[in-house]
Each structure stands twice: as structure tokens, then as C-alpha cells.
Design a protein that fits this description.
The strands form three sheets. The chain has a two-stranded antiparallel sheet. Strands 3-6 form a two-stranded antiparallel ribbon. Helix 2 crosses helix 3. The protein has a domain of about 110 residues. By secondary structure, the chain is mostly helical.
Amino acid sequence: MALRVTRNLVWHVWGRVSGDELPSTEVALEDMVIGLQPGRELPEILGTQPMDISDVHSYYSIVEAQLRVGSPSFMRANVLATSAFDAIDKAQAHHVPLLQACLSLRHSGLPYRIQLLAAENDRDTQMAGGRGQFASFQDCPMGSEGIRRLQTNHEVLKENAKARRAALLLARGISLSDMGTDLALMSASLLAFHQVLEAVGSAIPSEPPSDIDARRAEIVEKLRADLDPSKTLTKRISSVRRTEADLGRLDAKYISLKIANSGAALGMDAAWQSAATALGKLRNTKLGHSGEAVSMGELAPWLTGHPQGVYGYSAELLAKTLLDAWISKLAPSY
């Protein structure tokens, strides 16, 4: 019996791109091309056809994925809230996860699903549903400088694996932010943006202090004195742990110090450094570990499009600014 030989085929994968500035001519990026729509209609795929909006050049719209449940069983949560939307958010963040876990534990079948339907009181009723986002952009052709930057970005990210990893994390953060307003999704999005900082910080070697040997010797001598047998075992153990931490800080062992060092090396200002430190604290306490649950109020100042807090940076902007500066350094002609 003859064996069937399968061959890899080249597929043309089409997509539409929206944004503030787009190329008005075709720009080749190795195995990709970005430009205006070709002289024929793009393949008609469900959901890809443009809306009839005559006064905009490009747009995007996002409708949050929504679970559909059909069942005679119901749940009701009594929630103190300022509005129906607030009540739905609180029930989604607190009551639904708790009930879902309680039902699903010790159950070998598929997990239970819970769909919130509405919030009501004596005066008002609000239906729950997936939220949407829409943005449109006027025609603003990308200039020669923008095209050169686009090509340079692609060249650097193609050649430098560590920079490419940071770029993929940036894209992950954006993608997760588009999936919905669930706390878990938003937390994952902010974590991905902080991981961009971690990737850049880990890739840029830090410059040790000129007097690093003298400072190391001072730390070791202090440990020697603290290990005197006359001191309690608890105090001696504490001294060993403190010494390890002091040496780690001196060697920029901790990721927060690596991020700070990379920010300094790439010319980030004091506001950027303060914002990166604050986001790092949120990441370490509530985004990257199984500690206390994060609240919407803690996430909101870091979300793209939200009026930024005292630092003036969203998590996305922190990530983009650092990665962009690094690409500029990797490509001096940029």
C-alpha cells in the first residue's frame, strides 16, 4: 500500500489592522506585509467585514465574552452597592466564585457554571451582560519615519530573542485586557505587562558599584560580629538572613532592583521609576501569588485608558516605554 505524503502548504492569513497611524503603502516585514487593502476584497470571514462608518479610517470593537446558562436553578446574592452595575460587579467578584467553588469541589464532572442575569431593587432593574469597547481612528498615513521605526522594531525583535520575549508578553497583556472585565483577566493582563519589565530588567546587565568589594567586606564583617556565640540563636539566624538580603541587593539579585537598574540605564524618569516600583509591589503581593485577592480599586489606576494615578503611567505604558527604549538602544540608528 502506497504511503500518502503530506506536504506543508503556504497559506495567506489575512487580517485587518486599526490604529492611529497606518501605512498608506505596502510595507514588507520579512514574511508579512502591512498596507492598504489589496485590489480585491479580503476573504469574507464572519466578523471581519468593516462596519459602514463613512467618516473613520479604521476602528476596532470588542464585545466581552459572555457565558450562557439555561437552568431552572437560580442563585440570589444580597449585595450592598451604589448602583446596579456596582452590585453586579461585586457579586461577580465575590459571590459567584465562592458558590462555584463550593459546588465544584468533590465533584468529578464538569465544573459548575453561573451566569448573572440582573440586579434589582424596589426602584431599578439592570440586566447583566457582556461589556463592549469601541474606538475609531481618522485617516492619518504613517510617515517615512514611522515606517522606518516599524521596520527597525521588527528587525530587532526578529534578531534578539530576549527582546522578542518581552514583545510577546506585551502582546499577551493587550490580548488579556481585551477579553473582559473579570478581575482574573485584568490581573493577568497587568501581570503580563509587569513581566515585560522583568524580561527587560533581566536582560540588561547592571553596573556594580565601584566600591562593591569594600561594601561586601563591610557586610561580612558585620555578620562576623553578629555571630558571636554570646548572642541568641534567633538573633544569629536573623543576622544570616539579613546578610543574604544585603548581599543580594548589592548584586542587584532581586527583580525589582534589576528593573530599576534597567530603567536608569535606558533613561526612564523618576515618575516611571516610582510607578514601576508601585506596580511591582502590587505584582508581588496580589498578582503573582496566592495571597489576598486584588480589588477593582487596586487594579483600576493601572488600566489603559483609566485616568492615571499619581504616577501618570498605566501598566501598558510602563511596559511599552521601557521596551521601546531598549529597542532604541539595541538599534542605534533607530
